[in-house]
Design goal:
The two termini are about 15 Å apart. A hairpin with a 2-residue loop joins strand 4 and strand 5. This protein has 3 helices and 10 strands, in the order ββαβαβββαββββ. It is about 20% helix and about 40% strand. The strands form 2 sheets. The protein has a 6-stranded mixed beta sheet with strand order 5-4-3-6-7-8. A 4-stranded antiparallel beta sheet has the order 1-2-10-9. The model has no long low-confidence stretch (mean pLDDT about 90). The protein is globular and about 45 Å long.
């Protein structure tokens, strides 16, 4: 794994190794397996960023479950626009089901608040949130994040599903902008 990479016009340095990521995924999966045993479980993965976390997480879930995907976006270049656009909606009936929203990263909590507002009107049994990464220094959301893989500083990062203008999602590690 390279220590330093360049994507478009920006340089990034390795911040979280693939091994550290997989350890975090295993911790989150273990907690979900413990807390959600016996539930009719539906994972709702937020695209595009959470696809790698979702795939690795589901490999470690030891009960029957389903997964679906929604796509929300609020980023342009290396910063949030503050405007959340729904691109692809929910196609599953979640009424009476236990739902786990899977995020790649939670920073301000705005995207999470939007998806939770949309999901609660469908009367699920319960909704929990799992994120690989949380930026506690900028989190302003009112929605609790139930499962957190790792806390990270408020820096722009790429890799393991996170991108910079379309590049970097395929990286095994997570890199911080220089």
């Amino acid at each position: 794994m390279e220590e330093k990479i360049k994507l478009h016009d920006r340089e990034f340095i390795l911040s979280i190794t693939a091994s550290q990521i997989q350890d975090a995924v295993a911790r989150v999966a273990s907690a979900i397996n413990r807390d959600m045993a016996g539930e009719d479980l539906l994972f709702i993965s937020i695209l595009n960023g959470a696809f790698m976390f979702t795939a690795d997480l589901l490999k470690r879930i030891g009960m029957n479950c389903q997964v679906t995907f929604v796509k929300l976006s609020s980023y342009r270049d290396a910063s949030s626009t503050g405007i959340i656009k729904e691109l692809i909606g929910l196609n599953e009936d979640i009424r009476g089901r236990s739902v786990i929203v899977v995020e790649d990263i939670v920073d301000t909590g705005a995207t999470l608040g939007r998806i939770m507002d949309q999901l609660t009107i469908h009367n699920p049994k319960q909704i929990r949130v799992a994120t690989l990464l949380l930026k506690p220094d900028v989190f302003k959301g009112k929605i609790p994040v139930d499962y957190v893989g790792l806390e990270v500083p408020n820096a722009f990062i790429v890799g393991y599903g996170l991108d910079y203008n379309g590049l970097g999602r395929n990286l095994e590690g997570i890199y911080e902008i220089v």
